[in-house]
């Protein structure tokens, strides 16, 4: 079945990104937008655009029934959820499928299995994928949490089972911190994810956050597209990603690829996804989570492999086989993705406002996936990411130099951005040497 029309259940740069591939494939697109987004570029770029509701996400982009109603009205063949919002919502995926429309992503069963972090840990342990020491089941009481934390040793991470993107996780240095955060984490988990289930993991300090891109078709073939290092983070959220991962041995790379494929096969994974690992000082690695969607940083992989992952997602959703075998996929050069946010570079607090001037640095070998343009208002209702800028070069050192040149030539006025902070990271000797961990931001700000 060749898709002729796709609805994009998302906004901003990822909606534009999907529209771009659809146009290249001759597929019509339908955008949905909130009141706050009526002037956004993605609304104008789509073939058809519909108001979905008021600015708050629960009144617009999370309104499943309204999205599906528009999709049926427009007789679309598929719905692409992008990332965030409803992309990992198994109920939405199930509703889409029941309406007779193809959900461009994995099955609702897979999303549900891997969305529950406690369940995912159990599944991975059974599949022989190494997991971070901690609770296999959720912890039901503070007393149970205290005992487990004492057994595995502090510091620990207290996590919401349904959490993701840094939401619903708290580091606890000692029992006093655990006592302080236990109930509030359960309450946050209930409010954000509909479940108060929490679990405990040992904190792997001085760790690297490395993920493996996987893609599977409905015929049981699953391949990997190498790894990405996502260790530059603030508030447990990624800011800079790069590939290949510096200072990672070939043997560990191969073992991680094998573990990622094992994880994907355990849930009969279909479409694009990511298996995330935490890697310690000795290159021991542990399963962190599986993202059952397209990642924000997918362009890093696209730059190195020359593969359009959105196109692959659509082809797989159409029932086609993987376009390439594992042996046919190669990675060349180096890529770094910089996330440009409308935020104060000193506090990381969002900085909404009017973009009075925007000029991207003119540097060869840079891909700009921007959601905003000059003259637009950055509202406080959504994630403040303005754009992702992906830099490609023959090697890592050249890539870092080019990335810095690009940022220095970029000018954004009217709002604060994190560009000064990104330059600071690129100048940091730990980053430049490739010997950095998820503690990099904290060390820089100490």
Question: Could you please describe the fold and organization of this structure?
Answer:
The structure is a single chain. The radius of gyration is 21 Å and the shape is globular. It is of the alpha+beta class and 446 residues long. Helix 4 packs antiparallel against helix 5, helix 7 crosses helix 8 and helix 12 packs antiparallel against helix 13. The model has no long low-confidence stretch (mean pLDDT 94). A hairpin with a 5-residue loop joins strand 12 and strand 13. The strands form five sheets. Strands 13-12-9-10-11-14-19-17 form an eight-stranded antiparallel β-sheet, with helices on both faces. The chain has a five-stranded parallel β-sheet with strand order 3-2-1-4-5, with helices on both faces. A three-stranded antiparallel β-sheet has the order 7-6-8. Helices cover 35% and strands 27% of the residues. The N and C termini lie far apart (56 Å). The chain contains 15 helices and 20 strands.
Strand order within the widest sheet? 13-12-9-10-11-14-19-17
Count of discrete alpha- or pi-helical segments spanning 4 or more residues:
15
Catalogue the unreliable spans: none
Shape assignment: globular
Estimate the strand proportion.
25-35%
Count of individual beta strands = 20
Reported for the largest beta sheet, the result is: 8 strands, antiparallel
Structural class: alpha+beta
Distance between the termini: 56 Å
Helix content: 25-40%
Mean pLDDT: 94
Q: Any idea what the radius of gyration is?
A: 21 Å
